[in-house]
Amino acid sequence: MTIWRRALVALSLLSAAGAALAIDYRSVSVPAAILFDAPSLQGKKLYLIKAQTPVEVVVKLDGWFKVRDAEGTLAWIESRSIGERRTLVVTASKAEVRQSDKPESPVLAELEKWVAVDFIESASPGWAKVRHRDGATGFIRSTQVWGL
């Protein structure tokens, strides 16, 4: 009986740790934001990041987020430049938005690399429901985008 209790405790701790490690993706909400090497306006300016670009929030400090972009670069951004809206960015050379979350479904749009789309919801495994700025709504393979 002791072994089962230990196993149950270990399993519940792993479940709690998984929930605590949920990835926090957000998007840039201003036309352009500066990324810094430190959480300070006096830090070195690294580069600009445009609106709707998804980032992964890695660390939160007072007024600042340390974020990772689709290329894996880590930098600091003022938290006021980040919104709750979620977008995805195409990382494949070409991505297809399909009518349904099936590979044989008709293609609604083809998107070039670095195009941003609004994330609507998760779909069946390996797919996400998205909306392009022109209004096309459909499903994209999760392997063709970053921000999930």
Description:
The protein is built from one helix and 14 strands. The chain has two domains: 22-83, SH3 Domains (SH3 type barrels), CATH 2.30.30.40; 87-146, SH3 Domains (SH3 type barrels, Roll), CATH 2.30.30.40. The protein is 13% helix and 47% strand. Strand 4 and strand 5 (64-68) form a beta hairpin. The chain is mostly beta strands and 148 residues long. The protein has a five-stranded antiparallel β-sheet, with no helix packed on it. A five-stranded antiparallel β-sheet has the order 13-12-11-8-14, with no helix packed on it. The protein has a two-stranded antiparallel ribbon with strand order 2-3. It is elongated and about 50 Å long.
Q: Can you tag this structure with a few keywords?
A:
single chain; 148 residues; SH3 type barrels; five-stranded antiparallel sheet; 13% helix
From the N-terminal CA to the C-terminal CA, the straight-line distance is 41 Å
Number of domains: 2
Uncertain spans: 7-19
Pattern of helices and strands: HEEEEEEEEEEEEEE
Percentage of β-strand residues? over 45%
Give the overall pLDDT as a whole number.
Answer: 88
The CATH architecture of the largest domain is: Roll
Strand order within the widest sheet?
A: 6-5-4-1-7
Structural class: mainly beta
What is the name of the CATH class of the largest domain?
Mainly Beta
Give me the CATH fold name of the largest domain.
Answer: SH3 type barrels
Relevant CATH superfamily of the largest domain: SH3 Domains
What is the rounded Rg? 19 Å
- Number of helices, counting only DSSP H or I runs of 4 residues or more: 1
Shape: elongated
Q: How many E-type strands? A: 14
